[in-house]
Amino acid sequence: MASCSCFLPSTLRQLPNRIASVNRSQPSIPLAFQSIPLKPISCPLQPRPQLSSINPKLKFRTKASMAEVSTVKSEDKVQVFDSEEDLAVALAKYVAHLSDQFAKQRGAFSVVLSGGSLVKSLRKLVEAPYIDSVDWSKWHVFWADERVVPKDHPDSNYFLAYNGFLSKIPIPAGNVYAINDALSAEGAADDYETCLKHLVKNKTIELSEATGFPKFDLMLLGMGPDGHIASLFPGHPLVQENEKWVTFIKDSPKPPPERITFTFPVINSSAHVALVVAGAGKADAVHTTLGSDQNSDVVLPVQMVSPEGKLKWFLDKGAASKL
Ligand SMILES: O=C1O[C@H](COP(=O)(O)O)[C@@H](O)[C@H](O)[C@H]1O
After folding, report:
1. Cα Rg for the chain, rounded, in angstroms?
2. Who has the most CB within 10 Å: 225, 268, 276, 277?
3. Glucosamine/galactosamine-6-phosphate isomerase domain location, by residue (predicted)?
4. Whose CA is closest to atom 6 on ligand 1?
């Protein structure tokens, strides 16, 4: 029996009452979470999927199978907006629609956030009409990647999301699954994976029948100017990981060096993936991925995003300027 600690409440000190008091799965937790000595809920492990049961298209694509990597599938949608403001408006509508759909369909909405600029692009969701119309109690929030730093550190993706988004919505505190920042990178990755397994077992997260990996309802991915997504960087061996659900990196080319990240099989098992990319600084990587004259010598992590479900690109004019 393995145990995990992601059900412990977040340790951010300023967490507001409305989040702290509506914790669904925990007894009422007082404010000012100073390392509460609760016993973590145990998370029974499920058998790991065998390699042979993994959809072959999810395996790392070598240069020999480059066409598979870089082809934009016909059902993929690329939307280009005049401004980042317009992008944010459309993104809010899209997320609210999926929230409604999954809340009605299965009584829960599992949403994966990224760090960086993505959080700012979610700002319209915390405004009218969505702040009142979205059923936030159905939301379960995860991170595609997290930096292994304290939760109140400026580099923390949780901290960023808390300040820019989570603190503004009435989401139950027990539905926010932050990493255990008291662990090493390796320990935090294992702990997060154990938590996911528990949540798959109790059906908070669905399981992909095709791949045996968790199937999140919506994965919101940002992209770095180098084409990295989550903490999967170009040329790094982690992009080839096809067994683990969550892994760790200690030599991230972008600081801070220690991070945990979802692996490609998890990302690509999602029901919906939105790639949210703004700014001319990202135009080259967008061009490499979506342009017609693709260079087969380059494999960017973003080119390996090929979900079981639907992929949608939200670009502003700057990001699309080289298409
Ligand atoms: O380090 C990271 O970078 C990417 C991209 O960030 P952005 O600020 O260029 O949008 C982000 O998606 C990821 O979550 C984060 O850890």
Report:
1. 19
2. 277
3. 83-313
4. 116
Delimit the domains of the chain by residue range.
Answer: 53-316
The verdict on the CB of residue 301 being under 6 Å from ligand 1 is no
* Ligand 1 and 231: CB distance under 6 A: yes
Q: What share of the chain is helix, strand, coil (3-state, %, to 5)?
A: 35, 15, 50
pLDDT tens for the 323 residues of the chain, in order: 456 666 554 433 333 333 332 233 332 222 222 222 222 232 323 322 222 222 222 222 222 222 234 445 665 699 999 999 999 999 999 999 999 999 999 999 999 999 999 999 999 999 999 999 999 999 999 999 999 999 999 999 999 999 999 999 999 999 999 999 999 999 999 999 999 999 999 999 999 999 999 999 999 999 999 999 999 999 999 999 999 999 999 999 999 999 999 999 999 999 999 999 999 999 999 999 999 876 667 699 999 999 999 999 999 999 999 99
Which CATH code is given to the segment(s) 53-316? Answer: 3.40.50.1360
Taking the CA of residue 221 as reference, the ligand 1 atom at the shortest distance is 12
270 C-beta closer than 6 A to ligand 1: no
pTM for the model: 0.83
What's the 254 CA to ligand 1 centre distance in angstroms? 9
Report phi then psi at 110, rounded to 5.
-95, 120
One DSSP character per residue, 232-253 reads B-TT-GGGG--S-SEEEES--S
